[in-house]
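User: My collaborator and I are trying to settle a disagreement about how two of our proteins should look. Neither of us wants to argue from intuition anymore, so we agreed to look at predicted structures for both before our next call. Could you fold the first one, then the second, and keep them clearly separated?

Assistant: That sounds like a sensible way to settle it. I'll keep them separate. The first protein:
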Amino acid sequence: MNMKSEELDSTHDSNLNNNNNYSDPDVEKEEIQNTSLGNEQSTKEDSSEQVNQDGGSQASELEKNVELDESTTNTETTTSNSEDQGGENTSYASSANPDETSDSLEDPNNLEKMILSTGIRVGTPIKTKFMSSFITRANPEGLYILDISKTLARIDVAAKFIGRTNIANVAVTSAREYGKTPIEKFCELTGARGIFGRFMPGTFTNPSLPKYLEPEIVIVTDPQADEQAVLEATRAGVPVIALSNSDNITSKVDLVIPSNNRGRKALATVYWLLTKEVLKKQGKIKSDSEMPMTIDDFEAKLVEELI
């Protein structure tokens, strides 16, 4: 009996020792959470280093910020129901008058009306699967109407991305004639590099060419008309920002700015808005009223207007 009692006591002590080897469940849970947080922080630091080293990851970072900026802009931007009848309301004052433009810049509501009057959100009768998420409806004429709130959100994201880059390494090009004057004004005010005339194949990929460039960001006016620039930027791992209409294919574009990229006034408006936001990010202006040029200054002139 004494021997059995001693064996039982010994077994009991052994079990107690084994139980002491396990931590309290709550403590163990806390340690797991702390370990998980530490691993997550380490992963984020490694990811940050990867973004700085890889040009392609810059494009990924660009897309990550899009939804946040769009959701913020969606809560701040509203459109008038009176526009449903005819697509764009053209009864608002033109930006050609400097005094009227100045007043519009001081009043956000007037600025929005002025922007809408330029046809910036009027698309084409065709839509692609790439652009369907940017379309709100079709007007009675059968033209697809783009979501202006998403246009403004994407312009803000693009300006932030450009603001973190050496502006001299930002290349802007347009195969469309109406896009050349807006690009000239954009480059004049921001310091970006414009590529005018025919885009020479190899500009981004062939170092032996005299006009070879190594841009950090490429901005195109139309991903189809400027297809060569988009292809070469993609091969070089350079992020592409593109003004895209309802019928554009944007599979090789990193940041889409949904807008009418065919009309003179619409193109002038998009580049004017982008210039304004870039200048703010650069610290050159603080408010809309400080913009040194109007939308009319960005608009390409017809031959009749020049005579």
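The second protein, kept apart from the first:
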Amino acid sequence: MEHVQCRQIRHSYDGVRDAIGGLDLEIKRGEVLALIGPNGAGKSTTLRILATLQRPDEGSVTWDGADAWTDRYALRQRIGFLGDGTALYPSMTAAGYLRFFAECYGLSDADAKKRVAVVLDMFDLSTKAEATISALSKGMRQRLAIARTMIHDPELLLLDEPADGLDPLARRQLRDVLRRVADQGVGIVVSSHILRELDRFVDTVALIQKGRLEVHGGVEEVIADYDVGRRLHHVEVTSGLATALEVLRKHEGLIEGVEPLHKDEEAVDPKTSARGRIKVRIHGDERRAATILKDMVLADVEVISMSKVRSDLEDVYQSIGRDEVS
């Protein structure tokens, strides 16, 4: 697979309202695309259409120029799909579950055994190989469900909310795994509400609202184009921390946290500590930030730096401000 393209996709479940309307999208080999939008926006429908599990009412999906619906049975051997349900079998063991799906995809017994071992190790489940699925934690079950989508070494991976139920460490491991998989040439589409997690490893973002594509492009390009009014800043203070916080709140700054200036310093107590690094979202442009800085200096706060932090996908999503459902 070099690229998969959607052209003017339209689909309706009731014949009245479009779940997807006029959608154009492209997924390239080795690219991780983040599909974001509110509930009901059409993300899951888009994934099902890409997986050839649902035929659009209008438009087409092509794999390297060939019609996907015509070749859907052959293409499903090349797609890994995680829908909105994990489809696990409680009485099976983790290894048995993966072997079952490996055999469904036509792997020989020997190849299935090797692949199961690789995928279990990939998702840190090797020690749970013979544990029944019912005995696994929610996070382990989710990791197993994702592992199942990769058992046949697909060329296109479609994941609907893959981080659901995963703790921060497991989410980081998942990001690392998916990035490695993409670097091997697999195209990946991830639908998720955890936007800050996506921002750290995806290449391209597509924002869907009411079934229509509103934003599409490289992550850095999109963030630059939709830079937001409420920007995250780091304010480093060596004296007068409590006063600095008062000034920021006076200017409607949203305090996200206060941390030590250096890693070897103790945790900061905003009520008693004199120094620290403040993470704050400031509404407005650079002039607003300059005014805040001036007020802190006039209040005898020792400010050594005030720097804007790069916006992220969550900022972009909030800046568009139309959190609507179909």
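Some points you might bring to the call about the second protein. The longest strand covers residues 18-28. The chain has two domains: 3-225, 230-310.
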